[in-house]
Design goal:
- Helices cover 27% and strands 34% of the residues.
- It is α/β, with parallel strands linked by helices.
- It has one domain: 3-Layer(aba) Sandwich (Rossmann fold).
- The protein has a five-stranded parallel beta sheet. Strands 1-2 form a two-stranded antiparallel ribbon.
- Strand 3, helix 3 and strand 4 form a beta-alpha-beta unit.
- Helix 1 crosses helix 3.
- The protein is globular.
- It starts with 8 loop residues before the first strand and ends with a strand.
- Bound molecules: adenosine monophosphate.
- Adenosine monophosphate binds next to strand 2, strand 7 and helix 5.
- The site of adenosine monophosphate has 18 residues, from strand 2, strand 7 and helix 5.
């Protein structure tokens, strides 16, 4: 029987030379493993103290929405440029392989005071720090990050000023 670790496939030099890309989408082809993962993420203590989840475009949405259902927490989203209508807050940040920016709808943010961030993978920590900056600038509390995979060698955790829970560290 397959294990979660077996479903994280490394592609060398993707999308750029020198990057070991971790493809985790195969997890979705094994519902019993996906379910076990979601149950683990949803039972994390960090969620108990948060009013809502914020999940990050795009693979973060897959895991975030399943955790939102399982934990009965509301979810809002941080999206890439040009995707969200209405009044938005936007910040740019550096990625392991390039630049990106993320936006949050002001209307969605207004309803909640404390958040757990959910994403698929923690690399340098730039993405998560961008979201936490957006939240903290609006005087929202960030209770922590729950991620499926953490890449230890990039030391993202050391740049994050709140608790980090990863299901797999590699
Ligand atoms: P970072 O901001 O460096 O922590 O990067 C985290 C975000 O970029 C996550 O949303 C990942 O989906 C993506 N990412 C960064 N590095 C990798 C990698 N080596 N393999 C897969 N996804 C990655």
């Amino acid at each position: 029987m397959k294990k979660l670790e077996d479903l994280i496939i490394t592609y060398e030099d993707f999308p750029k030379k020198g990057i070991d890309f971790k493809d985790i989408l195969e997890i979705l082809q094994y519902p019993y493993i996906f379910k076990e993962l979601i149950l683990k993420m949803s039972s994390n203590q960090l969620l108990k103290n948060a009013e809502a989840i914020i999940s990050i475009d795009a693979r973060g949405f897959i895991f975030g929405s399943a955790v939102a259902l399982e934990s009965s927490k509301p979810m809002i989203v941080a999206r890439k440029p040009g995707k969200l209508p209405g009044n938005i807050l936007t910040r740019e940040y550096d990625l392991e392989y390039g630049k990106n920016s993320l936006s949050i709808q002001k209307k969605a943010l207004k309803k909640f005071n404390s958040f757990v961030i959910i994403d698929d993978l923690l690399a340098t920590g730039g993405t998560v720090n961008c979201v936490s900056r957006l939240l903290q600038e609006q005087r929202k509390e960030v209770m922590g990050l729950i991620t499926v995979v953490e890449l230890n060698k990039l030391k993202g955790r050391s740049k994050i000023g709140f608790p980090v829970h990863s299901i797999i560290s590699i």
